[in-house]
Amino acid sequence: MDEGLVLARLVFGLLMAAHGAQKLFGWFGGHGLAGTAGFLEMLGFRPGRVFATTAALTELASGLLVALGLLGPVGPALMLSVMIVAAVSVHLKNGLFSMSNGIELPLLYGAAAAALALTGPGRYSLDALLGLESLWTPAVVWTALALGIVGGVANLAIRRPAHTVAAA
Questions:
Q1: Who contacts 45 (Cβ-Cβ below 8 Å, separation ≥6)?
Q2: For residues 73 and 30, what is the distance between their CA atoms, to the nearest angstrom?
Q3: What are the angstrom distances between the C-alpha of 127 and each of 64, 68, 106?
Q4: d(Cα 80, Cα 83) in Å, to the nearest integer?
Q5: Fewest 10 Å CB contacts: which of 8, 63, 99, 135?
Q6: DSSP string, 30-57
Q7: Virtual CA dihedral for 79, 88, 53, 62, nearest 10 degrees?
Q8: Could you tell me the mean pLDDT of each successive run of 10 residues in the chain, 168 residues long?
Q9: According to the model, what pLDDT value does residue 125 have?
Q10: Alpha carbon distance 137, 86 (integer Å)
Q11: CA 93, CA 14: separation in Å to the nearest integer?
Q12: CA-to-CA distance for 83 and 94, rounded, in angstroms?
């Protein structure tokens, strides 16, 4: 089981960190902060640069925490939060599958994040190495996940999408 957990943590964590690096640094074909800020402004997240920086840092940090198995449910909760925002603000209108830019990808990341938080990082993690595993009681894990959900919903609540005006 521990080998499976480290594989899942590395794949989901490093890919999420790469998403953050795309937004933050423009790496891996990303648009960097300027391009991400403009996109987020179009989605109603203003000021775009603040939201772009926050999203990029959250994706980068959550991915690294998950990949390393550090700080238990914190990384998964952060990942869940940004995936809720992405799913609702970008992908939901396009249906389920990623071929049509649907919610499939953020749904998979969010589900994996929740599953990893609920399962724990396993023996091959920094939490195990540092003896932190006992801190992550079920109550702490559920609270972290709930805060991640609240954070995602709060981000969506403060969004101010542009209203389209029908041509006369």
A1: 51, 89, 155, 159
A2: 27
A3: 13, 8, 26
A4: 5
A5: 99
A6: --HHHHHHHHHHHTT-SSHHHHHHHHHH
A7: 0
A8: 96 98 96 96 94 97 98 98 97 94 96 97 96 96 98 95 58
A9: 97
A10: 29
A11: 27
A12: 15
* Single pTM value for the model: 0.92
Q: Look up residue 99 and give its DSSP letter.
A: G
Rounded CA gap, 137 and 145, in Å?
12
DSSP assignment of 62-88? HHHHHHHT-STTHHHHHHHHHHHHHII
Phi, psi of 72 (to 5 degrees): 45, -115
DSSP 121-164: --SSSHHHHHT-GGG--HHHHHHHHHHHHHHHHHHHHH--PPPP
Distance CA 17, CA 23 (A): 10
Sign of CA dihedral 38, 39, 43, 47: negative
Output the CA–CA distances (angstroms, integers) from residue 11 to 55, 74, 117, 139, 158, in the order listed.
20, 17, 15, 26, 31
Closest CA to 82 of 49, 45, 110, 53: 110
> Residue 7 has which token pair?
């594989």
Specify the pLDDT at position 162: 73
